[in-house]
Specification:
Helix content: 25-40%
CATH class: Alpha Beta
Strand content: 25-35%
Strand order of the largest sheet: 1-2-3-5-4
Bound molecules: adenosine-5'-diphosphate
Order of helices and strands: EEEEHEHEEHEEH
Radius of gyration: 17 Å
CATH superfamily: GHMP Kinase, N-terminal domain
Largest sheet: 5 strands, mixed
Number of domains: 1
CATH topology: Ribosomal Protein S5, domain 2
Distance between the termini: 48 Å
Length: about 230
């Protein structure tokens, strides 16, 4: 059986990425995948207040994931923090930590804000892709970039980058994963739904391959930013 939008099972939706979109931020980026649009802004490193939150040995990475009230599918999203946004902020931070060298920033914080004007599934992954570009644009010392994509089951087949329509099909499984560029570490792996162990392996392999394509797009966005200045 085919996918509802006619894509191959290993085919990503169209992606557009841009670095340096928010002038006052230290680093920023947009990442659009299909109808999901993420904006990321990075501020810092700057002194962390209140002071008791400071770590004299290394900096703190603070992430805030936020879907705008009109950005969901259907119901208006209540502004402010929710259980879901707290969870996604946390997993986003964890997905990015292996790529950043925070030892250089004792007592400091790097603040990351990710906003979504429109979503169609895969938002946490789009957010991670956007932040990774924004951190590099901010000049934060990074060991590598991080790319992310969801894999899962669509009509019983392992597929990459599920749309909301596909996520809503009966029996769909959603597995967002994040991969670091050089070391190939998996820094995010969540799972929603029931899937056979061998299909998880297939999905992770598919996701890793798709992340390689995303890395190229992230690198291109960064190069384009610096070519035009
Ligand atoms: P992800 O966006 O990372 O795939 P979910 O699987 O939780 O995360 O959500 C899938 C999609 O469902 C989102 O991208 C969004 O389009 C929609 N969605 C999630 N939460 C809400 C909500 N509270 N209201 C409306 N739409 C939502």
């Amino acid at each position: 059986m085919n996918r509802p939008d006619g894509r191959r099972f290993d085919e990503l939706r169209d992606i557009e990425a841009k670095a340096g979109i928010i002038k006052r931020a230290d680093g920023s980026a947009s990442f659009k995948i299909g109808d999901t649009i993420a904006y990321a802004a990075v501020y810092g490193p700057r002194n962390l207040y209140p002071k008791f939150l400071q770590n004299p040995e290394k900096g703190v990475l603070r992430c805030s994931y936020n879907m705008m009230p009109f950005s969901g599918s259907g119901e208006r999203i209540r502004p402010g923090s929710s259980r879901r946004s707290k969870e996604i902020s946390l997993v986003t931070q964890k997905a990015l930590l292996p790529a950043i060298n925070l030892n250089e920033f004792p007592n400091s914080v790097i603040d990351i804000f990710i906003e979504f004007p429109q979503t169609d599934a895969g938002s946490r992954c789009a957010g991670i892709c956007a932040v990774s570009i924004a951190l590099a644009e901010a000049g934060i010392p990074m060991k590598e970039l991080v790319a992310a994509v969801a894999v899962g089951l669509v009509n019983g087949e392992v597929a990459v980058d599920l749309s909301k329509e596909e996520e809503d099909l009966g029996g769909a499984v959603d597995i967002p994963i994040a991969v670091t560029t050089r070391s190939g570490k998996i820094s995010l792996l969540q799972m929603d739904g029931m899937i056979k162990a061998e299909d998880i392996k297939k999905g992770v392999a598919l996701g890793k391959k798709a992340c390689q394509k995303i890395f190229e797009i992230q690198k291109k966005a960064l190069k384009e930013k610096y070519n035009t200045q």
